Amino acid sequence: MAVSQQKPSALKAALKAGNKPPVVEVAVPAPETAANAPSRLPASRIGKRALTVHVPEDVHKQVKHLAVEQGRPDYDVVNEGLNLVFAMYGKPECAPRKKPRGS
Fold first, then answer.
1. What CA dihedral angle connects 82, 88, 90 and 94, to 10 degrees?
2. Structural domain includes residue 65
3. Domain contains 64
4. Do the domain assignments include residue 25?
5. Domain extent at residue 71
6. Which of 15, 69, 70, 77 is most buried by its number of CB atoms within 10 A?
């Protein structure tokens, strides 16, 4: 849309004559909310929450060694432990598990 380059005096005269300046509509994007925001998470993390636990160094090493011995990721060993705790307290197992390599 071309904008008229009128002198201020011509603009004043046009406004006095009852001419209204043109209305310009500008598209404003909707604010980003949780519902319409694009996910910045990898697909493997959608629907999951982080649970950070601080453990002694020897516990960390032992989980890592078990994971290597079993051919599984370390988080799978931890999830197996969580499922055992859930079972001990009569709760359903809900921590996701991966199958060991070669199974």
1. 20
2. yes
3. yes
4. no
5. 56-96
6. 77
pLDDT of res. 34: 61
Report helix, strand or coil for 85: helix
Whether 65 contacts 48, CB under 8 Å: no
23: tokens are 């209305």
Closest to 22 measured CA to CA, from 7, 11, 36, 38? 11
Residue 36 exposure: Cα atoms within 13 Å on the Cβ side: 5
Averaged pLDDT, 2-12: 66
pLDDT at 103 over 70: no
Distance CA 75, CA 70 (A): 12
Q: Is 101 helix (H, G, I), strand (E, B) or coil?
A: coil
φ, ψ for residue 86, nearest 5 deg: -60, -45
Residue 81 included in any domain: yes
Q: Tell me: the pLDDT tens digits for 17-64?
A: 776 667 777 777 777 666 666 678 888 888 889 999 999 999 999 999
Q: How many domains does the chain have?
A: 1
